[in-house]
Each structure stands twice: as structure tokens, then as C-alpha cells.
TrEMBL record:
<protein>
    <recommendedName>
        <fullName>Ribosomal RNA small subunit methyltransferase A</fullName>
        <ecNumber>2.1.1.182</ecNumber>
    </recommendedName>
</protein>
<feature type="binding site">
    <location>
        <position position="102"/>
    </location>
    <ligand>
        <name>S-adenosyl-L-methionine</name>
    </ligand>
</feature>
<dbReference type="InterPro" id="IPR001737">
    <property type="entry name" value="KsgA/Erm"/>
</dbReference>
<dbReference type="GO" id="GO:0003723">
    <property type="term" value="F:RNA binding"/>
</dbReference>
<keyword id="KW-0698">rRNA processing</keyword>
<dbReference type="InterPro" id="IPR020596">
    <property type="entry name" value="rRNA_Ade_Mease_Trfase_CS"/>
</dbReference>
<keyword id="KW-0808">Transferase</keyword>
<dbReference type="InterPro" id="IPR011530">
    <property type="entry name" value="rRNA_adenine_dimethylase"/>
</dbReference>
<keyword id="KW-0694">RNA-binding</keyword>
<feature type="binding site">
    <location>
        <position position="29"/>
    </location>
    <ligand>
        <name>S-adenosyl-L-methionine</name>
    </ligand>
</feature>
<comment type="similarity">
    <text>Belongs to the class I-like SAM-binding methyltransferase superfamily. rRNA adenine N(6)-methyltransferase family. RsmA subfamily.</text>
</comment>
<comment type="function">
    <text>Specifically dimethylates two adjacent adenosines (A1518 and A1519) in the loop of a conserved hairpin near the 3'-end of 16S rRNA in the 30S particle. May play a critical role in biogenesis of 30S subunits.</text>
</comment>
<dbReference type="InterPro" id="IPR023165">
    <property type="entry name" value="rRNA_Ade_diMease-like_C"/>
</dbReference>
<keyword id="KW-0949">S-adenosyl-L-methionine</keyword>
<feature type="domain" description="Ribosomal RNA adenine methylase transferase N-terminal">
    <location>
        <begin position="34"/>
        <end position="206"/>
    </location>
</feature>
<feature type="binding site">
    <location>
        <position position="54"/>
    </location>
    <ligand>
        <name>S-adenosyl-L-methionine</name>
    </ligand>
</feature>
<feature type="binding site">
    <location>
        <position position="27"/>
    </location>
    <ligand>
        <name>S-adenosyl-L-methionine</name>
    </ligand>
</feature>
Amino acid sequence: MSADPLPPLRDVIARHGLDARKSLGQHFLFDLNLTGRIARAAGDLSIGTVIEIGPGPGGLTRALLDAGARQVIAIERDDRAIAIQNEIAEAYPGRLEILAADAMAVDAATLGEAPRKIVANLPYNISTVLLLAWLRRAAEFERFVLMFQKEVVDRLAAAPRSSHYGRLSVITQWLCEVRPLFNVDRRAFTPPPTVTSTVVEIVPRPQPLAPARFQTLERVTAAAFGQRRKMLRSSLKQLGNAEALLAVAGISGTARAEEIPVEGFCALARAVDNMAL
């Protein structure tokens, strides 16, 4: 049973005039069953720090605190929502810190005490950019429980030889285990987005699947999937001697990007770096 001492979200939103703004990618989630389910998916919140991005009216913030979060740091750029977050902070003394900032400009890996978890209903217009930035510092996080468009989660979890397999699949799975948890119907939001959403758990691996440099792996996957219908001996020409790179990595030149497992792309990235020496 919830111990949330605050008024209903719709009342709070009406009082603060918090209409969802398209420019901020805002879609508000009012269903307490759903926010509670997301909070519980993050596991034990009694240690370390939970970081939330774009909390808006605070439905998920309240669920995280109600689920026992020791410390929540909420990153919010909308002044109207910050006023609401301040009210939540008063109701849960010492447990909620509000950071008035653009999440794109914040190094979340330095916030609060470890272990760090990011739990958020992400603004869809910046969701993948944020994830890639966090993955660069994946070792600083224990877990991500995030809501994306279903199409993005399909890409995160995709296996080779599937239509959704691409750059995001390779880089995310190289560093993390990916587990889609549940879908959220568009009608659960105000205003409803045009697509179904999915909550996904992303857990950093103790070690990457294979050795590679992040920047080089990004270059290799950008070249390969930028022309995914072409054979790799053609799509990788922009990286140098494609035939030599493929030979070193032990990959057929007639293969296409979607056929190559994560470890294969890591081998290509190492080949690129070695040939540059």
C-alpha cells in the first residue's frame, strides 16, 4: 500500500499549469500501477543513488521514493516541473535532490554515490543520444530501467540477421545485457504519443563482450550500417583498405552488416586501430 502523502497528480498538474510541451518531448504518465511497476523493476533502491531524467509532474519520482529509494536525483529543465519536485522533496525530507539542468549537459556518472541506477521515462526526442552518452561510462552504473519507444527497444535487443539489428544493437549489447520488460499502451499517457512504449532493463556487463575502443566501434558500425544493403567490402571502404580489414577480422567481404555478431564488429574495430598504428 502506498505511503505517498501528496495529492493526486492531476490536481498537482492543474495547480501548477503543467501542460505537456512537445518541444520538451513531454508525455505524462498518471497510472500509479505503472509507475510503481517501473520503480520495482529497478530492484533494491535502499543503497546508492537513483537518477531520474525529466520527472515532469513527478509520478515516477514519487513511486521511486515510495519504493524505498535512499536518494533520488531528478534532472529537470522545466521550471514548472521543478516547483512540483520541490514539493515532493519536502514530503520526503533528505531523499530527493533536484538538479535544474538539461540532461544532455550533465555527466550522470558523477552524480550521487554508487551504486548508481538511472530510472526514467525518457523524452523520446533525445533518448538514444542520452543512452549512448551513458554507455560511454557504463562501468559507473549498476543498472538502467528506461522507457523508450517500442521500436527503439526492439533495436536495443535485436539479434543478428533481424531487421532491427543495427548500430544501437551492437554498441549496447557489447557493453550490457538487454532485457525488455513490458509494453505501455499509448493511452496510458497524457497526451498520448503516436507509438507504443516499452520499459527495458539494461545491465552493464562486468567486462565488454570483446576488446574494442568505443569511438572506433562507433565508426565501424556507422560505416557498415550506413549502407546495410551493401556487402561489407563496399560499405567499409571509407575506413581504408576494406579487404585487408575484413581479412584481419576473419570476416567474409561478401557478408552484410546485419549478419555480423557483436564480437565480429569488435574484431573489425581492433583491425582499424591496428592498421592506423
